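Sanity check. The docking grid for guanosine-5'-monophosphate depends on where the pocket ends up, so I'm generating a full predicted complex first rather than guessing from homology. Inputs follow.
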Amino acid sequence: MSGIDRRSFPVVLAAPSGTGKTTLARALVDRFDDFEFSVSVTTRPPRGTEADGVDYHFVDGREFERMMDHGELAEWAEVHGHLYGTPRAELDAAARRKEYVILDIDVQGALQVRRSTPEAVLVFVLPPSVDTLLERLQGRGTEDAAHVARRLQSAMEELQHATDFDHVVVNDDFQRCLGEIRGIVEGEALRTHRAPGLRQQAEELRAGIARVLRNEYANANG
Ligand code: 5GP
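Predicted complex below; grid placement will be based on this.
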């Protein structure tokens, strides 16, 4: 960004499971150099090829509790029987690097970020239809009916909070959706409260104009 110093901020993506938000979050980080992924802590055991420190920081219940008690989490929630949380250190490190950190978290967590981290921008991702949501949830193959039903139940609850978010996108066309999220971040980055030097810069311009008025327009009327 040229001409003025701007603060970066966390970008929270939340959506009912099966909306494709993890794929969106990964694609944003792959495509844009100034986006990075927030690695959460969780008490859930690793799945498949998941690696510690990459997909999650895998911790036990005691360590999770210790982090909570020490105020090391910007938010946390219990999702499908496991604890998940965002380390404040992830957000602070991204802010120092002036990068936009993407939080791929559940709706309860997103609403906590709103309170704990007011500079964050909250984006709700809507599935295009019930059929697509169902297709994605069933398409995972490994999920039994009870599992799918549980996720549909959560989706119903999460959709109630869509209006509490700052922005909404629909994941019907993946590329368009990515572009829209990028657009949201670019627009938010231009807000005056994210430019810590704005007052001083405006004052310097005013001082410059005052000099010109004194030196060159002292005798002009009106
Ligand atoms: P999974 O176990 O399938 O990776 O994630 C299950 C759910 O937990 C997803 O909805 C995911 O977005 C959410 N989740 C992952 N990390 C966090 C986190 O740090 N905080 C919260 N609140 N939710 C998380």
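Relevant for the grid: The beta strands are 11-14, 35-37, 40-42, 56-58, 73-79, 82-87, 100-104, 121-126, 167-170.
Also worth noting: The pocket of guanosine-5'-monophosphate is lined by residues 17, 40, 44, 75, 77, 79, 84-86, 104-106, 108-109 (CB under 6 Å).
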